[in-house]
From TrEMBL:
Keyword Hydrolase in record: yes
Protein name per the record: Putative amidase
Pfam family, one: Amidase
Key words, A-Z: Hydrolase
């Protein structure tokens, strides 16, 4: 596979380690937390200026001192957890005590105070022993799968910094891909864990809704955005998901079950079945080469013993008419949730003027209507929820037959970093800043887990991924698939030591 990804320094063996191996090395006292911190800070210093993935980086002296304190804890027999001494950077939409949560927007006259406490999943990462070195860059308010904002600028792709990193977990994906952090947290509303994972050749898992609790001003309605893990291997992805997961009484819809996440990732797939949905029978426009590359990766499923079928279009059920209902349903859902969250800033003329067009689009679609649609009212929201339920029921029937549903992770390859978003794909105009990401809406509307797996590179050395959906709460199935997927050499079918 062609790659222009910056190579690791020959002598820097610490940052070469997978997260699980790094954990073992720290706990076996083969390396100190101080050595680990300095190695990663050297790596960040070397690579980050070319991609701008990690922002709000703390001073080295503070971080090294904290690493030394972690070493003292281990010397005294106090083990915080598997991430003891890990350098970690949190997506800049989540709170970390002592850091500002800019969300790619709050700066200058809109400046904010540092967070007083951690978000729920961040607190769990801290409790597992991580040391927070900084934040990872995001688009303004996480809108769009292209990481750029007026505070920190744009994040470049790990394989070609002149191209987009994806988003909104773009900084996190690049930081993992370039070994600036062992693993990373992110979040996913419309593919924000899956799209950048695909574009940076790593793993990104959108968990089942409720698997990783997220506390906000509303804990009952916001059923779209979910925190989740990113990693280079399935083992590391699984370990971080376990750390982030678990019921929290502050989020009453969170899952009160471990879902078997601690189970083995080894699995016999000889009785498993998967269905390839491609471009939904031509409904989704795809850049040339995307489908061919994704389809070539399906041989890995077959090498694992999974029986593959294909289906050209979304399943239908009473109340949901397949492909034709997908985008109208999504627009109502997205405008309602994203527009409602952003409305206070839109209502204030001063902050409204500072909002990027994507943010204004979401609010205006809610209160004024867009794409020839009227404003969205309570009845529209209810009817959309009923249609969403019908869509879920249609997919339940599909999951009666198939363990996995497979689609491209993204509809285009990483585009020029100077672009705001693709205005057309294969000659078909995109009606909004996020229409080119429509393939990512399916898992979100269903609330099911979805993972992006590396599918390979095109002739320009740009990565692509395939996303795999499983039935609700079947997160372990996707982790096991990722583990199997990473052990198969597509050229020979023989096992590899790692992905």
């Amino acid at each position: 596979m062609k790659s222009s990804q910056p190579t690791l320094p020959v002598g820097n063996e610490i940052v070469r380690l997978d997260a699980s191996d790094l954990s073992a090395a720290i706990h076996d006292r083969q390396v100190s937390c101080e050595e680990v911190m300095n190695a990663y800070l050297d790596r960040i210093e070397s690579v980050n200026p070319s991609v701008n993935a990690i922002v709000s980086l703390r001073p080295r002296q503070e971080l090294v001192q904290e690493a030394q304190e972690h070493d003292k804890l281990l010397a005294d027999g106090q083990d915080m957890g598997w991430m003891h001494g890990f350098p970690h950077a949190v997506k800049d939409t989540a709170d970390v005590a002592g850091f500002k949560t800019t969300r790619g927007f709050f700066r200058g006259e809109f400046d904010i105070l540092a967070a007083q406490s951690d978000s729920i999943h961040v607190a769990r990462i801290r409790d597992a022993g991580a040391i927070f070195v900084g934040k990872t860059n995001v688009p303004e308010f996480g809108l769009g799968s292209h990481t750029y904002n007026e505070i920190f600028g744009a994040t470049g792709n790990a394989y070609d910094p002149s191209r987009s990193a994806g988003g909104s977990s773009g900084g996190a994906a690049v930081a993992v891909a370039l070994h600036m952090v062992p693993v990373a947290d992110g979040s996913d509303f419309m593919g924000s864990l899956r799209n950048p994972a695909a574009w940076n050749n790593i793993l990104g898992l959108r968990p089942s809704f409720g698997r990783v609790p997220a506390k906000g001003p509303d804990v009952f309605v916001q059923q779209a955005g979910v925190p989740g893990p990113m990693a280079r291997t399935a083992t590391d992805l699984s370990m971080l998901l376990q750390t982030m997961s678990g019921y929290d009484p502050r989020t009453p819809l969170s899952i009160d079950s471990d879902g078997g996440l601690a189970s083995t990732l080894e699995r016999d797939f000889s009785r498993a079945r998967a269905v390839w949905m491609g471009d939904l029978g031509g409904y989704l426009p795809m850049e040339s080469g995307v489908l061919d590359l994704c389809e070539s990766s399906l041989q890995i499923f077959e090498a694992l013993g999974i029986k593959m079928d294909s289906q050209h279009g979304l399943p239908k059920a009473f109340g949901f008419n397949g492909n034709e209902d997908l985008w109208p349903l999504w627009l109502t859902f997205r405008h309602w949730l994203a527009g409602s969250q952003l409305y206070p800033l839109y209502y204030n003329p001063v902050t409204r003027a500072a909002l990027k067009p994507e943010a204004r689009y979401e609010v205006e679609g809610l209160v004024d209507g867009t794409d020839g649609r009227p404003p969205i009212g309570a009845l529209d929201v209810y009817e959309a929820s009923v249609k969403r339920t019908a869509m879920y029921n249609a997919f339940l029937t599909l999951f009666d037959t198939y363990d996995f549903i497979v689609l491209p992770s993204v509809q285009v390859f990483p585009f020029d970093i100077e672009m705001d978003w693709p205005t057309s794909i294969d000659g078909r105009a995109m009606s909004s800043y996020h229409r080119w990401m429509e393939v990512a809406t399916i898992a979100t509307l269903l609330g099911v887990p979805a993972i992006s797996l590396p599918a390979g590179f095109n002739s320009e050395g740009l990565p692509m991924g395939i996303q795999v959906l499983a039935r609700s709460h079947a997160d372990l199935d996707l982790l096991q698939l990722a583990h199997g997927f990473g052990s198969v050499d597509t050229r020979s079918g023989e096992g590899l030591t790692r992905m």
